[in-house]
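User: Could you go from structure to sequence for me? I need the amino acid at each position, not a summary. Structure tokens:
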């Protein structure tokens, strides 16, 4: 290939690579978030990525029943694609969802029960949804299906509501706020606008009870 053709090819491909990699500059490679959870229980979430893969590890320090959520996945075209979602209770595996993008299947259930379904586009766990909103700097992807490891649900349609103000790292911060859904399928997410749009509030409902994670401290590391 002569130099002229190389230059032409480079010019044609450069926009593609910029578009494919631009998301990586939006979020630092490691972010550790400390939340105040239900009844003041502390919770910690760690998000890491290396441009093509990501992990989310969350611990809610409930006395005598510590809950942990472990997510692994891929990043493609500005989208988080979880491949493994595991819930632990008191150190033991409680439920999980495993996604095979080649076979287009999702295997999930509260152990030891397992069920396999056909995978639909835009399937994420709740934590991946929150970080997808960080990448989007707003609403989640349309027609998203979510899993809690036990079942599959259609993500409720979220609407932006008035922004909220709270304290992160001891300073007043503003978060854009989204909410939607009914009953136990309700969801609320806040994104800290001056902190890379990281999830500052996550609210979900279970059996009629409202559970809220409110961000108090953010530790951001750049590679």
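Assistant: Here is the amino acid at each position, in order:
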């Amino acid at each position: 290939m002569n130099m002229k053709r190389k230059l032409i090819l480079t010019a044609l491909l450069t926009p593609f690579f910029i578009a494919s990699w631009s998301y990586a500059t939006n979020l630092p490679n490691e972010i550790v978030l400390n939340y105040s959870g239900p009844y003041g229980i502390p919770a910690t979430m760690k998000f890491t990525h290396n441009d093509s893969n990501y992990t989310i590890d969350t611990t809610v320090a409930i006395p005598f029943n510590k809950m942990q959520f472990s997510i692994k996945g891929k990043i493609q075209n500005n989208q988080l694609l979880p491949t493994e979602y595991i819930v632990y209770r008191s150190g033991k595996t409680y439920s999980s969802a495993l996604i095979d993008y080649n076979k287009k299947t999702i295997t999930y259930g509260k152990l030891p029960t397992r069920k396999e379904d056909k995978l639909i586009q835009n399937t994420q766990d709740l934590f991946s949804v929150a970080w997808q909103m960080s990448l989007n700097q707003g609403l989640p992807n349309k027609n998203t299906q979510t899993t809690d490891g036990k079942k599959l649900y259609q993500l409720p349609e979220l609407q932006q509501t008035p922004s909220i103000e709270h304290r992160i790292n001891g300073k007043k911060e503003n978060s854009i706020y989204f909410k939607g859904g009914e009953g136990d399928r309700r969801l609320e997410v806040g994104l800290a606008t001056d902190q890379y749009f990281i999830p500052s509030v996550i609210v979900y409902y279970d059996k009629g009870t409202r559970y809220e994670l409110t961000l108090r401290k953010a530790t951001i590391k750049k590679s």
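One structural detail worth keeping in mind: The chain has one domain: 27-221.
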